[in-house]
C-alpha cells in the first residue's frame, strides 16, 4: 500500500468516527468541526465548509470554527467570505493567533502586503511557535523582494516544525530564482532527510535535477513520486521530459535507455488508468512513444485547450522533430502570460527541453512587465543557461558518465585496437617485407587494409569523440566536412575494392586464360576504385556542416543540414545505399555463385593409353581443389560479413527516411548498428588469420594468399 493510500485509509476511518459521534450527539459542535477538518484533508472543501457552518450554527461563539471556515474559503477562492469569518473570529476572541494568521493570509491573497505584514506579526507575537505564520510572513517578504528576510522566516518555521515541507519548497524557489540550483537542491534534500515520504519535495527535487541535467537523479525522484502517488500527472510529465533530454544526450550510445522507457511506459499507463480524461498524460505518452521510435499520430489525441496542454503538445512535437508546430504552441502560451513569473516559468521550461527560440521569446516577454527585477531576471536566466551548458561539458565530468556510455566507449576502443593492430600488420607484411613478391591478390588486400586502417583512424576516432562529448562537435566546420567526406571515401573505396577483388577471383576461376593479366592492370583498377570513391563522396562536403544544437548557445553538432527539402535526403541516401550495398552485393553474389559452380565441377581429365586402348579417367586434383575451396570460403566469408554488418543499418535508415521519421530507430539500436558497421573493418584481418590458422607462423598467411592467386587456372 502506498503512503497516499495509507493516508486516505486513515482519513476514511477518522470520518467514520466523526459521523459515529454525531449519531450519538447530533448537536456536538466539536464533532462537526472535526468532521470539517477531516473533509478538508480529503479534498472535500465544500462539504468541509458545510460541516463547519453547521458547527457555527450550533455554537455561534465558537471562534475556531470561524477560523477554519475562513481558511477553507481561501482555498475555494472566496476571499471576501474569508475576511468576514476571520473578522468574526477576532471579534469573538481578539487574542486568537490563528484568526490573525488567517486574516494575514487573506490580505496576502489580495496583494495587500502591508496589512498582511501587520496581521501576521500580530499572530506571531501571540504565538511565536506557529510555523504556518512564519511561512506566510516569509511569503510577504519574498513578494517585497526581501529574500534574506524571507529565508530567515522560512528557517524559523523549520526550527519550529522540522517537517515543514512548504518552507523547504519556498526556500528552493528563492534559490532557483537567483540561479542557485545546487543550493535549492540542497534545501530540498535537507527536507527529504526529515520527510522522506514527501511527494512534493521529491517532485521538486526531480525538477531541479532535471534543470541541472542530472537525468538519472531526476528519474529516480520521479519514480519515487509515482511509487507514492501513481496518478501524479506532474511526475509523469517530468519523467517523460527527462527521458527526452536523456535520449538527446545519449542518442548513439544508450544501450540501457530502453529499460527506462519501459518503466516510464508502465507508470504512464497506470496514471492514464487513474486519469483517463487527462490530455496532458496522453500527450506525455505520445512523447514517450515518439522518443522510443514508435509511430505517433497527435491528431488522434485532440486539440489543446489550455496552456499546460499546449506545453505538453509542444514537447510531443519536439519529440517528433516538428519544430514549427512546437514553436506555434509555445508562442500561444507566451502570449497568454499575464505576469513575469508565468513568462519566466515558460522560459525555464523551454530552455530545459532545448527549445531556445521559444525560451528567448519567453524571456523577452517577461522583461516587458513592470516588475522591479524583471529585466535582470530575463538576462540572468539566459546567462545561467549558457553557464550550465558550459559546465556540463561531458569531458569535464567523465567520472559521472553513465554505465552505457562507458560500455560504448570500451567496445569502440576495443574494435579500434583490433582494427589498428590487424591492418597495420597486413600493411607491414605486404608493403615492407614482401614488396618484391607482390601478386594481384596482394595489391587488393593491401588496399583493403589501408582503407580499413583509415576508417579506424578517421571514422572510429570521430565517433569516439562524439560519444565522449555527448554528440557535441568540437573540431570546427572544416573538420566536420572533411571528416564526413573521408568517412564516405574510405567506406566506398573498401566496397569498390571488394567488388574488384571478387571480379578478379571470378576471372581466375571461370576465365583462367583471360585472367593472366599484368599487375599494371590491377593497379589501374585499384586507382580507379579510389578515384571513384573520391568523386562519389563529394556531396558530403555540401550536405554536412557544423550547426548549433537546438536549445544551446555554445554547443555544436556536425549534421546533415545541407538539404533544402526532404526528398533530397531520400534521393541521396537511396543512391548511397545502391552503390554501397545493393549493387555490390548483387554483383559479388552473382560472381561467387558462378565460382562455386566451377569449383564443384572442376576435374582434370587425363588420357591414358593402355594396351592400345584409350581410357578416360576423371581425377580431381586434390591440391588445386583444396586451394580453390579455400579461396571461395575466404572470399564468401568476407562478402557475408560485409553484407551482414551493413544491411541492417542501411535498411532501417531507409525506412526511417521514407516514413518521414514517424518510424524511428531507437537510440540504443542505432548505437548497436553503428558499432556493428564499424566492426567490419576489424573483422577482415581476423578472417585472414582464421582461414590460415594451420600455417606454421603468421607471416606465411600472406604467402598462402599469394599462392592462391598464382595457381595455374
UniProtKB/TrEMBL annotation:
**Keyword field:** Cell membrane, Membrane, Receptor, TPR repeat, Transmembrane, Transmembrane helix
What are the start and end residues of each TPR repeat? 29-62, 63-96, 97-130, 245-278
Q: Name one GO biological process term.
A: cellular response to hormone stimulus
* Any GO CC annotation of this UniProt entry: plasma membrane
Q: Which Gene3D superfamilies match?
A: Rhodopsin 7-helix transmembrane proteins, Tetratricopeptide repeat domain
The UniProt entry, under SUPFAM superfamilies, shows: Family A G protein-coupled receptor-like (SSF81321), TPR-like (SSF48452)
Q: Cite the GO molecular-function annotations of the record.
A: G protein-coupled receptor activity; peptide binding
InterPro entries for the chain: GPCR_Rhodpsn, GPCR_Rhodpsn_7TM, TPR-like_helical_dom_sf, TPR_rpt
Q: Where in the cell is it found?
A: Cell membrane
Q: Name one Pfam family in it.
A: TPR_11
Q: How does it sit in the membrane?
A: Multi-pass membrane protein
Asked if Transmembrane is a keyword of the record, the answer is: yes
Annotated ranges, domain G-protein coupled receptors family 1 profile:
422-688
Q: Which residues cross the membrane?
A: 406-431, 443-469, 484-504, 525-544, 571-600, 634-659, 671-691
PANTHER family recorded: G-PROTEIN COUPLED RECEPTORS FAMILY 1 PROFILE DOMAIN-CONTAINING PROTEIN, NEUROPEPTIDE RECEPTOR-RELATED G-PROTEIN COUPLED RECEPTOR
The protein in question is named G-protein coupled receptors family 1 profile domain-containing protein
Amino acid at each position: 500500500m502506498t503512503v497516499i493510500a495509507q493516508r486516505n485509509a486513515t482519513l476514511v476511518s477518522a470520518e467514520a468516527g466523526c459521523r459515529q459521534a454525531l449519531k450519538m450527539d447530533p448537536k456536538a459542535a466539536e464533532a462537526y468541526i472535526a468532521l470539517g477538518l477531516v473533509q478538508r484533508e480529503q479534498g472535500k472543501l465544500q462539504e468541509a465548509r458545510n460541516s463547519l457552518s453547521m458547527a457555527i450554527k450550533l455554537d455561534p461563539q465558537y471562534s475556531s470554527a470561524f477560523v477554519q471556515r475562513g481558511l477553507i474559503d481561501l482555498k475555494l477562492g472566496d476571499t471576501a467570505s474569508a475576511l468576514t469569518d476571520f473578522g468574526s473570529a477576532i471579534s469573538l476572541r481578539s487574542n486568537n493567533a490563528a484568526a490573525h494568521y488567517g486574516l494575514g493570509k487573506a490580505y496576502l491573497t489580495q496583494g495587500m502586503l502591508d496589512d498582511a505584514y501587520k496581521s501576521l506579526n500580530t499572530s506571531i507575537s501571540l504565538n511565536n511557535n506557529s510555523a504556518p505564520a512564519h511561512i506566510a510572513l516569509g511569503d510577504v517578504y519574498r513578494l517585497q523582494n526581501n529574500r534574506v528576510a524571507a529565508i530567515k522566516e522560512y528557517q524559523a518555521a523549520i526550527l519550529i516544525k522540522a517537517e515543514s515541507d512548504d518552507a523547504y519548497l519556498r526556500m528552493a524557489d528563492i534559490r532557483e530564482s537567483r540561479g542557485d540550483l545546487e543550493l535549492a537542491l540542497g534545501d530540498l534534500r535537507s527536507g527529504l532527510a526529515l520527510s522522506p515520504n514527501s511527494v512534493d519535495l521529491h517532485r521538486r527535487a526531480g525538477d531541479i535535477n532535471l534543470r541541472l541535467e542530472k537525468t538519472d537523479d531526476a528519474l529516480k525522484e520521479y519514480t519515487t513520486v509515482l511509487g507514492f502517488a501513481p496518478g501524479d500527472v506532474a511526475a509523469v510529465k517530468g519523467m517523460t521530459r527527462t527521458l527526452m533530454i536523456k535520449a538527446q544526450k545519449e542518442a548513439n550510445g544508450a544501450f540501457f535507455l530502453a529499460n527506462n522507457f519501459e518503466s516510464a511506459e508502465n507508470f504512464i499507463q497506470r496514471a492514464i488508468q487513474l486519469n483517463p480524461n487527462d490530455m496532458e498524460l496522453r500527450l506525455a505518452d505520445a512523447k514517450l512513444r515518439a522518443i522510443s521510435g514508435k509511430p505517433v499520430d497527435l491528431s488522434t489525441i485532440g486539440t489543446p485547450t489550455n496552456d499546460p496542454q499546449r506545453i505538453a503538445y509542444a514537447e510531443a512535437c519536439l519529440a517528433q522533430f516538428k519544430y514549427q508546430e512546437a514553436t506555434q504552441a509555445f508562442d500561444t502560451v507566451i502570449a497568454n502570460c499575464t505576469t513575469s513569473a508565468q513568462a519566466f516559468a515558460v522560459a525555464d521550461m523551454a530552455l530545459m527541453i532545448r527549445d531556445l527560440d521559444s525560451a528567448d521569446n519567453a524571456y523577452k516577454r517577461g522583461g516587458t512587465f513592470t516588475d522591479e527585477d524583471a529585466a535582470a531576471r530575463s538576462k540572468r536566466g539566459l546567462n545561467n543557461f549558457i553557464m550550465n551548458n558550459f559546465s556540463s561539458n561531458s569531458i569535464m565530468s567523465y567520472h559521472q558518465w553513465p554505465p552505457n556510455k562507458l560500455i560504448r566507449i570500451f567496445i569502440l576502443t576495443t574494435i579500434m585496437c583490433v582494427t589498428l593492430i590487424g591492418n597495420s600488420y597486413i600493411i607491414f607484411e605486404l608493403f615492407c617485407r614482401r614488396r618484391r613478391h607482390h601478386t594481384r591478390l596482394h595489391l587488393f588486400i593491401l588496399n583493403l587494409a589501408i582503407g580499413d586502417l583509415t576508417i579506424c583512424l578517421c571514422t572510429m576516432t570521430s565517433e569516439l569523440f562524439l560519444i565522449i562529448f555527448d554528440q557535441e562537435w568540437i573540431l570546427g566546420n572544416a573538420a566536420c566536412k572533411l571528416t564526413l567526406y573521408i568517412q564516405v571515401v574510405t567506406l566506398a573505396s573498401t566496397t569498390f575494392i571488394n567488388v574488384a577483388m571478387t571480379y578478379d577471383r571470378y576471372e581466375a576461376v571461370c576465365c583462367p586464360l583471360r585472367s593472366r593479366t599484368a599487375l599494371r592492370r590491377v593497379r589501374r583498377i585499384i586507382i580507379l576504385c579510389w578515384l571513384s570513391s573520391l568523386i562519389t563522396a563529394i556531396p558530403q562536403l555540401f550536405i554536412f556542416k557544423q550547426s548549433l544544437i537546438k536549445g544551446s548557445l555554445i554547443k555544436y553538432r556536425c549534421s546533415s543540414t545541407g538539404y533544402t527539402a526532404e526528398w533530397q535526403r531520400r534521393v541521396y541516401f537511396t543512391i548511397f545505399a545502391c552503390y554501397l550495398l545493393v549493387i555490390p552485393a548483387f554483383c559479388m553474389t552473382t560472381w561467387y555463385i558462378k565460382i562455386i559452380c566451377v569449383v564443384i565441377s572442376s576435374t582434370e581429365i587425363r588420357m591414358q593409353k593402355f594396351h592400345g586402348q584409350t581410357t578416360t579417367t576423371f581425377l580431381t586434383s586434390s591440391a588445386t581443389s583444396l586451394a580453390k575451396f579455400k579461396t571461395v570460403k575466404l572470399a564468401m566469408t568476407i562478402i557475408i560479413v560485409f553484407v551482414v554488418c551493413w544491411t541492417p543499418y542501411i535498411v532501417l535508415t531507409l525506412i526511417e527516411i521514407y516514413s518521414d521519421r514517424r518510424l524511428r530507430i531507437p537510440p540504443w539500436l542505432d548505437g548497436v548498428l553503428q558499432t556493428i558497421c564499424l566492426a567490419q573493418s576489424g573483422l577482415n584481418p581476423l578472417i585472414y588469420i582464421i582461414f590460415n590458422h594451420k600455417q606454421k607462423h603468421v607471416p606465411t598467411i600472406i604467402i598462402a594468399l599469394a599462392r592462391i592467386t598464382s595457381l595455374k587456372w
